[in-house]
Amino acid sequence: MPVFVEHIDAIARAKEAAALYLEFHPQGVDLWRDDTYDHDPRHAGVPFCVMPLAYAMRNITHDEPGFRARWAEDF
Q: 42 vs 11, 20, 63, 68, CA distance in Å?
């Protein structure tokens, strides 16, 4: 079933706070195996990130009603 997932900056604006998130980047099976079996809690290719509220506010116009429809029309 399709699910709409909000953009991280929209989540930060809704909560009126910085948002913490993980980014997952594909890596080869050999790298995954090395990360899995070296007993290290840090994984290459999975950085822990923060979206500051001030940065998220740069896209506040995206929250306006009809923004996505107008964007699609102009596309």
A: 25, 16, 35, 37
pLDDT per residue over 12-31, tens digit each? Answer: 999 999 999 887 766 665 66
Q: What is the pTM of this model?
A: 0.64
Q: What is the pLDDT of residues 29-67, one digit of tens each?
A: 566 556 555 655 566 667 788 999 999 999 999 888 888
Structure-token pair, residue 72: 């699609």
C-alpha angle with apex 38: 34 to 40, nearest 5 degrees? 115
CB contact set of 58 (below 8 Å; sequence gap of 6+): 9
Partners of residue 60 on adjacent β-strands: none
Q: CB–CB of 23/46 below 8 Å?
A: yes
